[in-house]
Amino acid sequence: MLGRTLLALAAGLSGLLASPLADEPTHALFRRNSTSDLSAFKGAVLLKNGVQTSCEVALMYNTYAFVAANCLDYITTSNGTSLALNTTTSYTVAISQGLTDAYGTFSVSSVTPNPKYDPVSFANNVALLQFASNGGSSFVNYIASWRPEWTNRYFVRRSLNAASNSGFNQPVLTAYDSTSDDTACAQANQLFSLNQKDLICNKLSTASIFNSSCAIPYGSIYGVVNVNTAIAALYSHSAVNGKTEGPKAFCSGYTIYNYYIVLENYIHWAMSIMGTKAPVFHSRIPQYTETLDPGYSMAIPNPKNVEGYTVYGGDLYHLTGDASKASHKLSGGAIAGIVLGILVLLALLAYFIRRKLKEQADNRVRRWWFFGRFFKDEEDSRHDPPREFMDDMEFVPQRDLMGPSTSIAPDSGMISPSLKSHNDDMPTNLKYKKEYEAEAEAEANRDEKSRSHPPSYAIEF
């Protein structure tokens, strides 16, 4: 009887113990009976150059943690096809003690992105941080390592006091286990469509600490197994329905799908770097399986993003260049089309300006324009007498060019100069002045001759 009792007790305990490996040390798990109880967990936030980001950290030990790889800063290598970490960026990890107290801030000494990380699609979007303990006490945070047994999910957003970066704000927590958005999530993002076991997606969001009118995703997800809870996923990226960039994406009411990377398939990759076992949590049941390959990779889609959606990831507080390359760079064809359109508009504008100038140009002035030159007739027609009078009028030069006015008999066949206005036929172009003077002198000579030799008249009957 005693033997059967001991066997039954051993069987019951085996269902509660949490360890995927026989040699793994046993750590006490915090039991949860309400969604508001996060005080026993140590949460963490990544800081870059002393400034907090929206990137949360999944702690394992007091010296190691997961973070999303797109939260790090990169530079393009000399061959232009790959990325390398920007070594000028300084990283620190701020760790909470309970809900709002600070456990400490620790400098990151080593950053290792997953070698399969794709910065365009955000596949395999994880990195491992190693940081100094600064003499702090040792602690362990578990990673929930078997998704099929999660009975609920807690979406959590942690943040530091925005004014001082010291002390934590009250964490925001939402319990949500629905998969109702999965179909729309797959249509908005190719990576999720091919890797639904590695990603969690929905439209949940919470207010940004820097702008309460902007909604950003939660930072982490905790998996719930009966009464136990452990961190399970980190925010990876978002797909925004529309061609927009910057704060407008999260502040203008666009439809946004948020994707979180599940950590369980990257545990053995992290162990290969740490050189020790990772603290994981799952029920010890026969159905449990785990990914043992440290080189595990998601399926990388082609094309990597969906047309009509802009993909964002990394630090969303400031949105400094975190949009996916495929979403915010114009293609060569688009740039060529824009340039051609601008040139056509400039050509049309120049044509109409030239045409207007040509219409308004002075007839006697030679004009130049940047598309060529054109000429106007040099004759001045503005001062010509009306056409209907030309046939009946004989041109008579000005008296001031001829000398004293002289009366001429009407029957002489000439019009008396004194009958014409002084300015009626004043030439406007002075280059003809000598011609008029010569003509006036000749007419004066004819007048003088006419007075000296009056004409004779013959009368016939």
UniProtKB/TrEMBL annotation:
The keyword Transmembrane helix applies. The keyword Metal-binding does not apply. This is Peptidase A1 domain-containing protein. Residues 1-18 form the signal peptide. Residues 401-461 are annotated as: Disordered. Residues 432-451 have a biased composition (Basic and acidic residues). The chain crosses the membrane at residues 334-353. Keywords: Membrane, Signal, Transmembrane, Transmembrane helix. It comes from the Eukaryota.
